[in-house]
Specification:
mainly alpha
């Protein structure tokens, strides 16, 4: 009967064989497919940001009073508020404090980051591909830059899993938390505490995703850059360790 370690090594080898076979069947020259994967991940990331905002709106049912951002400072209103011709007159008539729905406000704020998702994924893909290509060259790889971009595209596709897991974990954390803070500062502290408690599950999800990405990268390096499995594993492992370090920070 094989030992657990031998069984694990055999399972990993089988996954790497399937990864390499998958890349062998793909033509890295089909740039439309590579770009299609990146576009899909880009829009999935943007959708994930929107989904996170919806989670905030659906799980946080709390109103707090905050300073009215539309009203000038008290000193300005004391000086110009009674002057009907002043541009501040109408604005100074507004209340000093207004009630806001925290969930709705967080949803609006989160939505402002959609643009970063649309820009960030292609930039991240390009940087990953360039660094991967440089590392592969140092390791004696023979593939082209186009090959590295193809490998990087399929590797970042796995990030959709991490994004979905992250949204699900945050939803669970907030849906099981009662927000009762009377001020925006108190509510913020409660939300940070609730989300911080999910650090373990989020780190576990990151580790699983990085492990899958390692399998993808190693298979791609074997197929496209003609690296032997040991060298490809080291190259992929360096990137995986760096990714896990970033996830843990």
């Amino acid at each position: 009967m094989p030992s657990p370690l031998a069984a694990f090594a055999s399972a990993v080898a089988g996954l790497l064989d399937r990864s390499r076979a998958g890349f062998d069947r793909l033509d890295s020259g089909r740039q439309a497919l590579t770009l299609g994967v990146v576009v899909l991940v880009t829009f999935a990331s943007a959708f994930g940001i929107v989904a996170l905002g919806s989670v905030f709106d659906a799980t946080i049912d709390r109103e707090v009073s905050v300073e009215n951002p539309e009203r000038p400072s008290e000193a300005t209103c004391e000086t110009f508020g009674d002057d009907d011709e002043s541009v501040f007159a109408d604005r100074c008539d507004q209340p000093a404090m207004v009630d806001i729905d925290v969930g709705t406000e967080l949803q609006r704020t989160t939505g402002e980051y959609v643009g970063y998702g649309l820009l960030g994924v292609p930039i991240w893909w390009a940087l990953f591909a360039l660094v991967l290509h440089g590392g592969t060259r140092l390791a004696g790889g023979t593939g082209s830059l186009r090959d590295s971009f193809a490998i990087a595209a399929w590797a970042i596709a796995v990030e959709v899993v991490r994004l979905a897991a992250g949204v699900a974990v945050v939803w669970y954390a907030l849906s099981t938390t009662t927000v009762g803070g009377a001020t925006i500062g108190a509510v913020t502290d409660e939300l940070i505490a609730a989300i911080s408690a999910t650090r373990g599950p989020l780190l576990l999800a990151s580790a699983v995703v990085i492990a899958i990405q390692w399998v993808v990268v190693v298979g791609g390096l074997e197929a496209y850059h003609d690296l032997d499995r040991g060298v490809a594993g080291v190259v992929g492992g360096i990137f995986g360790a760096f990714g896990l370090l970033l996830a843990a920070v």
